[in-house]
Amino acid sequence: MYCVTCDSQLHLGDIERERRVGFGSVLYIRCQNTVCNTLNDVKTGKTSRGLNFDVNSKLAFAMIHTGMGPVQVNNLLTTLNLPPVDISTLKRKENKIDAALEDAAKESCSAAQKEEVNKSNGNIEVSFDSGWQKRGTGWNYNSSTGHGSMIGKETGKVLQFSLRSKACHICALYQSKNHTVPAHECTKNWDGSSKGMEPDMAISMAKDLKEAGCPINVIHGDNDSTTTSRLQAVFPSIEKKDDANHTKKSITSKLYKLSQKHKSLKQPNVISYIGRCFMYAIKESQSKNPDRLKSSLDVIVPHLYGDHSLCAKESVNWCSFLKNPSQARYRSLPGGKPLTCLSLQTDLISIVQNLKDRATSLVNLGSTQANENFNFIVSTKAPKQKSFGSSKSLKGRLAASVLQKNEGHGYLMKVNKSVGLSPGEFTMTMATKIAAKRKAQKSKQASLHGKRGRLMKKIKKGKKETTNEVHEGVTYSTAVELDQADNQLTTEIPQRLTLPTTPTYVIFDIETTGLGRTSDILQISADNLNIYIQPRCSVSEQASIVTGIRFDWDTKKMFVKGKEVNSKPVQEALLDFVDYVKRIPKPILVGHNACNFDIPVLTNRLREFKLLGELSTHVLGFVDTLKISKRIFKKCDVSNYKQENLVKKLTTYNYCAHDAKEDVQALKVLFTEKLEKEVKDEDLFHIGFHQVKSKYDKLLKEKCLSSAAVTSLARNGVTPFHLKLAYERNFGLKVLLKDLKLNLTHKYMDLLISFLQKEE
Q1: What is the pLDDT of residues 548-584, one digit of tens each?
Q2: Which fold has domain 93-133+145-242+369-407?
Q3: Total-model pTM
Q4: What is the second-level CATH architecture of the domain 505-685?
Q5: Which of 231, 374, 627, 685 has an alpha carbon 20 to 30 Å from 473's alpha carbon atom?
């Protein structure tokens, strides 16, 4: 920085004052040359025509491009501890940018029209759709503004766009004060209903395109308005093509409505499968005779009900039963079997008849996906939660959306140049990166691999959502709080037990008064816990010999190998054990032969003192090292699977067996060195495994489930009551069993469903 008078160097330390102009500033710096002493005004950025800082214009452009308003811009700046910009400054700059955007958008549309004419050889096909700046419902659309677009089939670019507005904030301001409205650029251009905007914009754009030498021959659109009939009244030669996505949506909507009457439609994948069958028939008949489509539609209902004679007659290529009749199954229908409900059959035939009546328009479907994408771009620049409709701002944001759709993010540099701003180095770099990324995405999305990947992702997401809904029960529904008295609605079904990424194991062991599962506990030990417990019944001689524990009933004292030890009542000891476990985040209990002995004894005593529920809440489950050892070690290598023998054979640790504390330390060495890495999800058992398993006695007796299936269900803590809940939750039994990785044969599935139906 140098003085404008004497060319002496200026210093920031000599600033006398600062004048902020938006995001720019003017620094007044005194020249320290005693002869000169000039007060210099130094601008902090590029300016044009006085104090019009370029950075303010770019800030206004960024506000439009990112869909923010002046308030959001200042919130961003002040959060970064930067000074806010006066709203009037932003609005002035925005008006300047808006004018440039509108001119650039018109030029872009004109160029797109010429390109479309050349690529289509004059046979112009466009897709049309509209959008509103306020969210509406099926029976209430009252947005003050709406926009429409016509996009060329060959170029995929916006050929023409239009905006309708019922409001102008300047008019509203003066009218509210009963003042005369001054001359201004009024944004209001529509007095009709919000729904009436769509056909009016379509007619207006069609006229503009005709005048520009780009007359429409075919228009793709949905059936949500009277646009086509009104358009054809003005342009009789225009042909209409229905939108494929809206056609599919219409069919599935009817099926969902029928699901309120037919329970079989509520089962997972049924509606999506029936919808696919309809679309298979429709797409197979594209560009063919309407009679061919009618014949294809007639195949659907018999196919769904197990009659494939018409499938063979019409030679449809989507029926797997024609390729392999003996092994083909309905993978998306309950039990792999055809539908049987006769009343549903009648309703499906009604849908078929409705589609046959529209066969002429269905044999040549179009697409409005490009318009949906354009509407999304508009929503990013004019979000529906913000109101831009009563000012000129919306026109500029709509124009910016057109430019982004037609030219990508490169439009930013184009508009910058048109208003005398530098293109911007970082702007160009980012635009280039986005263009390259978009090109790669477009190529991937158009590929078979990309389409299949999206479909599989959608299916996987849908399955996950359905599974969660079966497990959780009703969580969100109209007036669901009024039905809270029905606990079954909100009862959660346990999730499949899986090992966490970094599991926390707690090694434990108990010594008892006998060998039965109803025995009292004499000693309970864990990693850093060792408690001796006063028995409530006599200790068997065999148990005393094995454990070395004796109890003197006269003195109420306990002795271990002749040495007195401190002991506690059983309830106090169990409370200490539960408190110890609670301090560890979701631990997994580990014991040797725990499944057959330690866990049953422990849970029996915990249940007696009503402590089992509390322990279950804090424990993920338990692991039995005996079962793991039998799986990974051959008997010929270890001779037997007793803990004492395994420790001796597989480790160098020496210890005294049948003392819970010693057993825990020895098992910890064995588990850490040889077993921990071998633990699988299947080794993890619910803490209430035995209690849950006992609830399946009736099912086992009636041979509705195999013993292995019952073990798998009980391992995850799933009771017959949970199976019944899953069945009642939109027939989610199959979903639950699949989530638990339990594959039942058709025989067992049918028997189980019959049992659950009888229990209702």
Answers
A1: 888 888 788 888 877 888 889 999 999 999 999 999 9
A2: Nucleotidyltransferase; domain 5 (3.30.420)
A3: 0.76
A4: 2-Layer Sandwich (3.30)
A5: 685
